[in-house]
Design brief:
Chain A is α/β, with parallel strands linked by helices. Helix content of chain A is about 45%, strand content about 15%. Chain A has one domain: Aldolase class I (TIM Barrel). In chain A, strands 1-2-3-4-5-6-7-8 form an eight-stranded parallel barrel, surrounded by seven helices. Classes of the chains: A alpha/beta (about 220), B alpha/beta (about 220).
């Protein structure tokens, strides 16, 4: 149980999340010793302040959730987030460039962001719900080659989240070159455990407490 | 017909849009003599090349669609977009700050972007589907204080789009101090006309077939 909590990025990315909600998220992350909180970049400094003197990291999303902003804008957002205290960055891959087979620009987009966070953790969100298997393989390769520390399945704002099938593909490409983060729709202990058994090293979820306490919807019926 | 087509922002913001689709969008905008196209910031320089010899304006989005990126990131994204050739900037209001009643930060977010882009028109998206009547009024007042040129109803990525009720509330609040753009799920000219009659200046539309068909029908009638 204890080490399961270290897999969790305790996540609140809703556009309407208030500062009080972010403070509560941080308190919960401290209580349950989650790996990080994952927040929008406007809340990086607030989260950093709340998590002073704790082990919980601040993870910030960039170019979120569409991934369609200019590379320069992603870089600027990343730099500001780091300045505000973020230690991990979850950026969204440029899906339009990927679909256009403009792989050079997909690569540059990721590489430029990685340059801002050379010693920190960069996760690249592939938004797999919009990709076919071949595109998932290509996107995984591009992300890893351009410096991603993690490849991540989903934003939680697409048409669906992580699936076992997708995670298996990503894991087979990543091998030991990069780690895999599963996110989107992971709400209980059983599902989290299933992904971890596949070799997933981080789980993005807003149901972290339910996962680590084992009080999942499936258990509630007993 | 001319006067209506010049009220239309022809919009393509889905994250998987390819270069081919952006090229088509630009050509269709020229053919139909729309006021502008609205695209994500990673495609501004491509659109600029395509529209250089036309009077179709390029509008791009900032902090889109959540509005939850840091102010610094929005400012940079806006500046870069203008540099790339954007003629108009649409930013999403910080909904989290608004819901936290942190109005000072909501205002600063808007006015910092406006200061950065100076004479370029700034539209602020309120995302009315997330707001109560009082929040719409408050948000509209802050937009005026922040020197927004337009108030826009919706991103198109939330629960709902424009409503006549909401545009009337906004109109009553702002009077002639800012213009209004209605967006989200406006698919035909009949609906567009209802909004224009209620004092809306600009309409976002995403679907060409219905638009052109209705436009032709309308021009025959007229």
């Amino acid at each position: 149980m204890e080490n399961l909590s270290q897999y969790i990025d305790h996540t609140l990315l809703s556009a309407t999340a208030t500062s009080d909600a972010i403070k509560q998220l941080c308190e919960e992350a401290k209580t349950y010793q989650f790996h990080a909180v994952c927040v929008n970049s406007c809340y990086a400094s607030l989260a950093n302040e709340q998590l002073k003197n704790s082990q919980v990291k601040v993870c910030c999303v960039v170019g979120f959730p569409l991934g369609a902003m200019s590379t320069e804008a992603k870089v600027a957002e990343t730099k500001q987030a780091i300045l505000d205290g973020a230690e991990e960055i979850d950026m969204v891959i440029n899906l339009g460039y990927l679909k256009s087979k403009n792989f050079d620009d997909v690569w540059t987009d990721i590489e430029e962001v990685k340059k801002c966070i050379p010693n920190g953790t960069l996760k690249v969100i592939l938004e797999t719900c919009y990709l076919d298997d071949i595109e998932i393989i290509k996107a995984s390769e591009l992300a890893i080659q351009s410096g991603a520390d993690y490849i991540k399945t989903s934003t939680g704002f697409g048409t669906s989240g992580a699936t076992i099938h997708v995670v298996k593909i990503m894991k087979s490409v990543a091998q030991d070159y990069a780690k895999v983060k599963a996110s989107g729709g992971i709400k209980d202990y059983e599902t989290a455990k299933e992904y971890i058994n596949l070799g997933v090293e981080r789980i993005g979820t807003s149901s972290g407490i339910a996962i680590v306490t084992g009080i999942s919807s499936s258990n509630k019926t007993y | 017909m001319n006067s209506i087509s010049k009220r239309i922002d022809y919009t393509l913001l889905k994250p998987t849009s390819t270069e081919r689709e952006i090229i088509d969008l630009c050509h269709e905008a020229i053919l139909n003599d729309f006021h502008s196209i609205c695209i994500n910031s990673s495609y501004v320089s491509l659109a600029k090349q395509l529209l250089e010899r036309s009077d179709i304006k390029i509008c791009t989005v900032v902090g889109f669609p959540l509005g939850a990126t840091s102010t610094e990131a929005k400012v940079f994204e806006a500046k870069k977009a203008v540099e790339d050739g954007a003629d108009e900037i649409e930013m999403v209001i910080n909904l989290g700050f608004l819901k936290s009643k942190n109005y000072v930060s909501v205002l600063k977010d808007i006015s910092d972007v406006k200061i950065a882009i100076n004479k370029i028109p700034l539209k602020v998206i309120l995302e009315i589907s997330e707001l109560s009547k009082n929040e719409i009024i408050k948000a509209a007042e802050i937009c005026i204080d922040g020197r927004a040129d337009y108030i826009k109803t919706s991103s198109g990525f939330s629960k709902g789009g424009a409503t006549l009720t909401a545009t009337k509330i906004i109109k009553k609040t702002v009077k002639d101090r800012t213009k209004i753009q209605a967006s989200g799920a406006i698919e035909d000219i009949e609906t567009a006309l209802k909004y224009l009659d209620s004092g809306v200046h600009r309409i976002s539309m995403t679907s060409i077939p219905k638009t052109t068909k209705s436009l032709r029908k309308y021009s025959k009638k007229a």
